[in-house]
Design goal:
This protein is an alpha+beta fold and 183 residues long. The protein has one domain: Aminopeptidase (3-Layer(aba) Sandwich). It has six helices and eight strands, in the order E-E-H-H-H-E-E-E-H-E-H-E-E-H. Strands 1-2-3-4-5-6-8-7 form an eight-stranded mixed β-sheet, sandwiched between helices. Helix 1 crosses helix 3 and helix 4 crosses helix 5. The structure holds coenzyme A.
Amino acid sequence: MITLTTDRLLLRPPSEEDIAPLLEMNTDPEVMRYIGDGSPGPSDPESTAGIVARARQGWADNGFGMLSVLTRDGGEYAGWVTLAEPRFLPQLLPVVEIGWRFRRAFWGRGYATEAAAPLLAFAFDEAGLDRIVSIRHPDNDRSRRVMEKLGLRFAEEAVVPVRGTRVLVDAITREEYAARRGG
Ligand SMILES: CC(C)(COP(=O)(O)OP(=O)(O)OC[C@H]1O[C@@H](n2cnc3c(N)ncnc32)[C@H](O)[C@@H]1OP(=O)(O)O)[C@@H](O)C(=O)NCCC(=O)NCCS
């Protein structure tokens, strides 16, 4: 498991102290508006502890996964960024998705982009992945902006089989990432 730092943020594997803010974030309807079917996540500490445990196990199993994002100034839990297999879209597999979720109080500060950038670098440089996708609800403009700023570009539309809902898939390849970094 890894730790990454940026100018304003510390990224480290999820831990038990994240459970309370994670639960708050996952039960905020505005945060969850464009996730899955739009309903809030689990509202009990046990299920949220399970998210933390699975995230830690994911790192052990895959060599990549979810990182909690904390402010360096104050150590507040702002949200998470992740590398994960989008199993809800089996037609895309095998592929790895980059994703993000932040507490509403931390939106509009550039944190999502700042935290996702070193994770994207990790995906190509350390995890050895060749292509990264990011998947969003068609109306999730905030997330689209983050993808755009990271250099991902629209790749395809897809339908989530279990829900029948349409999503948009953006992507960046290792070559595109290298060219962007070189430029
Ligand atoms: C998606 C999400 C992470 C985006 O958060 P965000 O705060 O809007 O995104 P960023 O961290 O990149 O910040 C963007 C804005 O912060 C502002 N900002 C303020 N200070 C800044 C700084 N120092 N650096 C960069 N941007 C800054 C910018 O105006 C920027 O707006 P722009 O996109 O018009 O350029 C957030 O809306 C969220 O958690 N949503 C709910 C979960 C979700 O939908 N996840 C994605 C599923 S696909």
